[in-house]
Amino acid sequence: MNATDQKIHANIEARKQAELMISLMIEAGAECADRVLYFQNLRQLFDELSPPPKTRPATRLATPEPPPATFTELMTDEESREFGGHQIGFGKHAGARIDEVPLAYLKWLAGQITTTAFGSNLAYYLASNRITSEQGGQ
Is 60 left (phi over 0), alpha (psi -120 to 50) or beta? Predict the structure, then answer.
C-alpha cells in the first residue's frame, strides 16, 4: 500500500470511528433531561479538545508595498519587470509568468482580489507606465 492509499485508508477509519462516537453521544444525549444543555456542553468540550486546524504559512511575493489608493506614485519599469517575472500560482494561468498572461485576464483578476497584497500589487503593476505603454494604454 503506497502513502496515498495509506492516507485514504486512515481517513476512512477515522471517519468510521467519528461516526461511531457521534452515534454514542446522540444516544447518551437522548437520556439527558436537558438535551440543549447537553449538546451545548458537548460542543464546548469538542471545541476545547479538538486540535487546531492546520494552516498553511502565508506566502508573499517579494514585491513593492501596495500602492496608495490613488496611485500617486507608479511602479517603476524595474519594479514592473521584477513583478512581471513572478509566476501566478493559481487559476486559469497557474505557472505562467505574469508578463505572459493576457492583460484582460490580469485586469479581471485584479478586480477579484482587491483586498489582498497580491491584488494591490497587481493593480499597481497594471497602472505602471511600462504596462500601459506596452499595451497601448488599454
Answer: beta
Amino acid occupying residue 128: S
Residue 92 domain boundaries = 77-134
**Whether residue 118 sits in one domain with residue 81:** yes
pLDDT, tens digit (0-9, with 9 covering 90-100), for 65-101: 444 445 557 888 888 889 899 888 888 888 899 999 9
Element (H, E) at 45: helix 35-49
User: On the CB side of 14, how many CA atoms lie within 13 Å of its CA?
Assistant: 6
| pLDDT averaged over every residue in the chain | 78
- In the 8-state DSSP scheme, what is residue 114? T
**C-alpha–C-alpha distance, residues 78 and 75, integer Å:** 8
| Cβ neighbourhood burial of 120 (10 Å; 0-12, 13-18, 19+) | buried
Please tell me whether residues 45 and 81 are part of one structural domain.
no
**Whole-angstrom Cα distance, residue 56 to residue 59?**
9
Distances (CA, A) of 133 to 20, 76, 77, 96, 115: 64, 13, 11, 22, 26
